[in-house]
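Continuing from the previous page of notes. For each protein in this section, the sequence appears first, followed by its C-alpha cells. Read the first protein now.
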Amino acid sequence: MAENKDYKVYVDGFDDEEEEDDMEDLRVTLDIGDGEEIECKILTIFDLNDGSDQDYIVLVPVDEDGEFLEQTDIYIYKYFEDENGEPSIEMLDDDAEYDKVTARFEELMDEADDED
C-alpha cells in the first residue's frame, strides 16, 4: 500500500447541485508533494453499502486533453466534504478497509458492465 501522505485536492467545476452522472466532467488535481501534481477525473464516489457514513472516491489520471491515460493506476481515497461542501480526501491506511473498499469498487464495476 502507498505511503500515507497529506494530499491536497482541488476540484474544478464542483457544485453541490451536480448529478453523479456529471462527475465525469470534473477534474481533480492531486498535489502529491515536491511540486508534483496529477490531474484526474472522478470515476465514481461510493460507500460500502454497510450503513457507515464514509464515502470513497475513485480517481483516474488524465492527459492534458482530459483523456484517460492508457495503462494507468487508479487512486482510491476516503472522501469527505466539510460543512461548506468543500471536498477533501485521505489515504486508506488500514489494510482491512482497503480490501473492503476495493472489493466494493470491483462489485460496482461488475454491476456497471452487466448494465452495458
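Done with the first. The second protein uses the same format. Note its length before scrolling.
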Amino acid sequence: MLKMTPKDKGRGSMLKKIFRLFGVATFLIASGHSVQATTYKDVTLGGVNLTAYCSKIYGYYFKAKLIQNHAGGWTCEKTAGNRRPISVKKACILQYGHRAYKAKALNWTDPTSWRCFARQAIPTMTGVNLTPWCQKTFGSAFKARLVQNHAGGWTCEQSSGNRRPISVIAACRLQHGSRAYKATALNWNDPYSWKCLVR
C-alpha cells in the first residue's frame, strides 16, 4: 500500500479544493500535447494535369490524349502513331510532390474523375477518466487519487486507509471498449500525461 508524505497530503488537499471549485466529480487525465498516431485518412489534393506529365516525361510535343471513354483511356500522344503509356500516380507526384501517394478515379466511366490523394495522420490518443474504472471495479465510494507526483502515482481510494491498485489500460478499455489497445504516459514525470491509444 502506498503511503502519503506530508507533501502528498498537501497536494491532495489542494486537488480537493480545485474539484470543489469547479464541481468536478471525476478527474479526466488530459495533456496539452498534440500527438499524431499511425492512423491515416485520405485527403484529396485535387485533379491532375496529365499533359504536364506527358511533356515532362516524353518531350514537349507529347500531350495527354483520351483514346477510350473511361478513366483508363488516357495515353501520352505525339501523333496517332506515336503514343506512350501514362502513369496517373506519377503525374500526381509530379504535380503535388511526394505527399501525393495515390491516384484514384472517382468514377471509372468518367475520364475526368481522376484525383490525387495525400495521407493525413489522425490523432488517436485520448485522455483517460480513471474514476469510473475505480468505481466499477471497487465500488461507488472509490475515486481516482494522485498519491505520488508521477504517472505511476495514481490509486483508487475510498479513504487514506483503503486504497487499491489502478489499471490505466483497463480504464481505457472501459472508456473506449476494445478499440483501446494501449495506455501510455507521454511524460512519466507528469501524472496527467496518460493517454489511451485507440484503433
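What the second structure shows: Confidence is low (pLDDT under 50) at residues 14-37. Residues 41-119 form one domain. We return to this in next week's lecture.
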